[in-house]
Amino acid sequence: MSKKVVVLPGDDAAPEAMGPALAVLRALELDIQFVEFPPGEQWVKGETVVQVRRAIDASDSTLFGATSGKTQGIGYLRWGKGTYANVRPVSWQQGYRSPLARPEGIDFVIVRENLEDLYLGVEAPLPALAPAHLMSASTGKPLDTTDEHAQIAVKVISEKNTRRVAHFACQLAMQRKAAGGKGKVTCSAKYNMLRHTDGLFRRVVEETVAGYPELSYQQFIVDDFARRIVQTPHELDVVVLPNLYGDILSDAAAGLIGGLGLAPSGCYGDTYAYFEAVHGSAPDIKGLGIINPTATLLSAEMMLSYLGFSSAANRLHAAISKVYAQGRTLTPDQGGRASAREFGAAVIDAL
Question: Which of 24, 27, 73, 296 could form a disulfide with 49 if both were Cys (CB 3.0 to 4.6 A apart)?
């Protein structure tokens, strides 16, 4: 069945990764119609945003580069389409330039709640809290709201959103277990201090995992987990985190296997999903043609699986693995001298 995919190349150096990735996808000769938009720098503000939203609504998925703010309306993919589970795999393979002595066997997934927490972006001057007459749990005294120069940010953790992302994580752990994985869910948050918000997240995840007796469960305070993600990453399987911690710790996790150029992601809702590299738009290397397309390609692999092209996804993964195992055509971040286009051409040859 034919599929329609919106392509948003993004800003700065991101389109230099999207170009080779699209060439590889076309080489797979799948029944996919790509609806392409220009880089964010070329957008006509307002008009293009409306066109993008309409295209997204008429599509089966979106492949997105990265934005520094020039590509507008990206929030529609997240909040407009309700993509509540941000899945970020962390998997080492031969040829990745890991800083670890023994990265072999690192293979886990971070499932990040994608819609709330501090990322709602609700901020205000501190005096806005005065009518609430809040007490400080740390001092036991009323909150001093008189400093008009102080700012606040609102952290929202809801039972509804936590429970559905926890179910998503459990179902993913079940799938991985069926394929030979550990069948383990790990939850982390700062629940020892933030008892009402992170404490709610921890409790709901714990309750949800209890409904999956085939899975094992563990939980750690987030600062302790930050150590564990570096010291014992081989023990992890599926990790579920609130929005902010998931964003930060998935970047740290990418460093275990060789950097953000290797880190894909997919954002899943009940009726829609989009896919993007974890890395940013890399303005410092814009125009050099050396950005690593691997993260975009691995995100495209996730997209193909989501769209039902599992065989093609497997072919793509095998081709990328072959290029890294050979080690002849790698980009500078992985110790090579190849351009993004040369890397993409090597993947096509490996297909």
Answer: 73
Place of tokens 């066109």: 51
Per CATH, the number for 1-96+258-351 is 3.40.718.10
Secondary structure class of 224 (helix, strand, coil): helix
CA atoms in the 13 A half-sphere facing the CB of 241:
27
- How many H helices and E strands in the chain? 10, 12
As a whole number of angstroms, the distance between CA 33 and CA 24 comes to 14
Helical segments of the chain, H only: 14-27, 47-57, 75, 159-178, 198-209, 222-231, 243-257, 294-307, 310-326, 340-350
Over residues 211-247, the pLDDT tens digits come to 999 999 999 999 999 999 999 999 999 999 999 999 9
Domain with CATH 3.40.718.10 in the chain: 1-96+258-351
What percent of the chain is helix, strand and coil (3-state, nearest 5)?
45, 20, 40
Residue 298 in tokens: 């691995």
State the average pLDDT for the chain.
96
